[in-house]
């Protein structure tokens, strides 16, 4: 776990919103076409639509979050789906509890 990279990622309100939305994707996003039960996450297009930001901005945000290991990316054809990496998020929270 790269504590500083995760902190950088979490220093942005929209990226925190994305993590919160992905915690309960059924409640926050429309049904997925290729992944009906959200097992591989939420399509980038749905995340972009919810934020109202440009595709390039959302792609950049999701890439940062993926590189920090707090999101898992899965490709289905030309579409990429993202879900939370619960293990890494838990490691981060435990690090905070135990070290700060």
Task: Please explain how this structure is put together.
The structure is a single chain. This protein has 100 residues and is α+β, with helices and mostly antiparallel strands. The chain has six helices and three strands. A hairpin with a 2-residue loop joins strand 2 (71-76) and strand 3. It has a single domain (3-99), classed as Orthogonal Bundle (Arc Repressor Mutant, subunit A). Helix 4 (44-51) packs across helix 5. The two termini are 16 Å apart. It has a three-stranded antiparallel beta sheet with strand order 1-3-2.
Tag the structure with descriptive keywords.
single chain, 100 residues, alpha+beta, Arc Repressor Mutant, subunit A, 3-stranded antiparallel beta sheet, 57% helix, globular
Helical content class:
55-70%
Ranges with pLDDT <50 over ≥5 residues?
A: none
Q: Give the class from helix and strand content and strand pairing.
A: alpha+beta
Q: Any idea how many domains?
A: 1
- The level-1 CATH class: Mainly Alpha
What does the largest sheet look like?
Answer: 3 strands, antiparallel
Number of strands: 3
The CATH architecture classification is Orthogonal Bundle
Mean of residue pLDDT values:
93
Strand fraction equals 5-15%
Shape call: globular
Q: Radius of gyration, rounded? A: 13 Å
Order of helices and strands: HHHEHHEEH
Which strands sit side by side, in order, in the main sheet? 1-3-2
The fold-level CATH name is Arc Repressor Mutant, subunit A
